[in-house]
Amino acid sequence: MEQNIRVVVDAMGGDHAPGEIVKGAIAALDAEKDLTLVFTGLKKPLDAELRKYKFDAGRVRAVYTKEVIGMSEPPVAAIRKKKDSSIVAGLNMVKHGEADAFVSAGSTGAVLAGGQLLVGRLKGVERPPLAPLIPTSKGVSLLLDCGANVDARASQLVQFAKMGSIYMEHIMGIKKPRVAIVNIGSEEEKGNALVKETIPLLKECRDIHFTGSIEARDIPYGEADVIVCEAFVGNVVLKMFEGVSSMLLKEVKKTLMSSLRTKIGALLIQPALKKTLKNFDATQYGGAPLLGLNGLVVKAHGSSKALEVKHSVIQCVNFSKQKMNEKISRQILAASTSE
Amino acid sequence: MEQNIRVVVDAMGGDHAPGEIVKGAIAALDAEKDLTLVFTGLKKPLDAELRKYKFDAGRVRAVYTKEVIGMSEPPVAAIRKKKDSSIVAGLNMVKHGEADAFVSAGSTGAVLAGGQLLVGRLKGVERPPLAPLIPTSKGVSLLLDCGANVDARASQLVQFAKMGSIYMEHIMGIKKPRVAIVNIGSEEEKGNALVKETIPLLKECRDIHFTGSIEARDIPYGEADVIVCEAFVGNVVLKMFEGVSSMLLKEVKKTLMSSLRTKIGALLIQPALKKTLKNFDATQYGGAPLLGLNGLVVKAHGSSKALEVKHSVIQCVNFSKQKMNEKISRQILAASTSE
To answer: Is there a contact between B32 and B318 (Cβ–Cβ < 8 Å)?
Structure first.
């Protein structure tokens, strides 16, 4: 074994926990030979799921916890109070160096707050952004920050740009990723105070390929690889993406089922249409990493099924193999010493 | 004639000016008997278009201007310098009470800046929001502010909520419109500083039906009638709507043309699909009004064709007939004296 990459998986988080969570993570074992898994969760349901699969017992371990953090609990209070929950136990393993990464489809707030409070930031990183990959007509773009820290400062957006650029280059294999900032127009003088302050700082960065402003309209067309914005805006971009596409697809489906004629038409187009729509299914890329932590924390969708969990775990393996945190640290520290 | 409503139309603004602009405005004459039109623009092209149609000469007038404001000119400078442009001439007619409303598909920046600088705000209105109607699966919602003034204050968002509520009630006929503020979660403690400051103020308003936060994901499903947000966020919501839907429809079309099988399927579903997609065509509602001015300024899409121009002009007639500005003034002033 070249290196042993240890990923903790929150077996209790998400709409389909623990069944789909355990299934997906176990499936990752076959794909990644250097992977070992730790599941955190309640003994009874976790053991019941684990009994369903065959695997090398040396590569899978369970850490039993007695509490579960609910989706609607106030995040910071939950992290502080429920020390024996699957989320806190998993994050603490990363904190103490007993694991390299933590994956959860549970409460976003708790995972984000816990990642920052328990795992902690890499030296020099001001704020860790939540950075999901979003599907576009050209492939995929990284959107950050997408909800971790609202009301960011310009210097923080610059760090997001750097971390996102490293991610797209080394995890997604895109050379010289195009970095753009979300704006309400492409002209220089457009923008709010934060964007106007950030643009000149991004222009000065020698270590990223900054291409300027991107209007929200061009995001779905993949006009940039790394899309930088403040978390409130990023959350709106992501949720509009999900909302508009799900609403339109529902309307199209309703139309296809509206008469015999359209039903026959639907049968003819269905295989091709399914293939097209699959390209816009975000689950194939796994969850969203919280970048800039002392370790890796990945937040999978609450609705995650086995495939997204599997891809999230594989993402953790790639992240470790690529020594992403060393790369991020080096670039962030280089920037802070050159100032 | 019960009342004469005078609408100035910028014949030079938009991708299809002056042809589609003149055609659409003239078409509104048949729909609205109380309407008279003034076109502003260069003599030669404007006259050439006007010669194509038959109309009551007493209801249509041309005001010839010698300059045109381009789409990429810095807005404020253009408004100050090009006094003899179709936009400045039109706005000045509203300012001097020679017209009730102005419609333009030209430079958004110039129309917004000119509306505020030349026409001026109603007494008590802090900032005039740009308020487009956006199509949803339930009908239509009003989104404001959608790009007129970035970095708004909480008191301004409260005024947007009031003006939007009046608009939806009296122009769109929705009783007790549901007013919501764009947020990144539905829980009380979520939001950025601006949203957290605004929510308690909206709760105190007795004259609107405030329903709380709306996540961007729920906007396309029509979960609120009036959607309040800061202009940068509103611009992102609107542009994501346009971008995601246009991208997805392009991908679906490509798929439908990809094989003989899908082409036959496409023929069968096309009539029904067209009808569905028409519901999501924003042009049927006309342009976006800039609310809270001493008069009415409507910004139509740059890509407007005759139908959108016609609906924009009709919107101006309804706005005047409903005495919208008196209603807005009364409510805004009532709020400021009760404080």
So the answer is: no
Q: What is the pTM of this model?
A: 0.92
Instruction: Identify the pLDDT of residue A279.
Output: 80
- Name the strand (E) or helix (H) holding A273: helix A260-278
Question: B25: which 2 tokens?
Answer: 């405005």
Query: Roughly what angle, to the nearest 10 degrees, separates helices B260-278 and A260-278?
Result: 100
**Half-sphere exposure for A251 (CA within 13 Å, toward CB):** 25
Q: What angle do CA A197, B232, B301 make, to 5 degrees?
A: 125
Burial per residue of B286-312, b for 16 or more beta-carbon CB atoms within 10 angstroms, e otherwise: bbbbbbbbbbbbbbbbbebbbbbbbbb
Nearest residue of chain A to residue B108 (CA atoms): A185
Which residues, other chains included, contact A241 with Cβ-Cβ below 8 Å and sequence gap of 6+?
A: A134, A219, A220, B240, B244
Sheet containing B101-104: which strands, arranged edge to edge?
A: B60-64, B35-41, B5-10, B101-104, B296-299, B288-290
3-state secondary structure of A150: coil
CA-based nearest residue to B292, from B52, B125, B76, B78: B125
Give pLDDT tens digits for A238-276: 999 999 988 988 998 898 888 999 999 989 998 888 888
How close B65 gets to chain A, by Cα (Å)? 27
Search chain A and give the residue with CA nearest B182. Answer: A236
Cβ contact (<8 Å) for B268 and A250?
A: no
Write the pLDDT tens digit of every residue in A290-331. 999 999 999 999 999 999 999 999 999 999 999 999 999 998
What CA–CA distance (Å, rounded) separates A299 from B288?
39
Give A186-214 pLDDT, tens digit per residue: 766 788 999 999 999 999 999 999 999 99
Q: Interface pTM (ipTM) of the complex? A: 0.91
Checking B76-83 for CB contacts under 8 A at 24+ apart, the result is B76/B113, B76/B117, B78/B107, B78/B110, B79/B110, B79/B113, B79/B114, B79/B117, B79/B118
- Mutation to test the A interface, candidates B232, B276, B279, most A Cβ within 10 Å: B232
Confidence of residue A2 (pLDDT cuts 50, 70, 90): low
**Would you mind telling me the total number of residues written for chain A in this entry?**
339
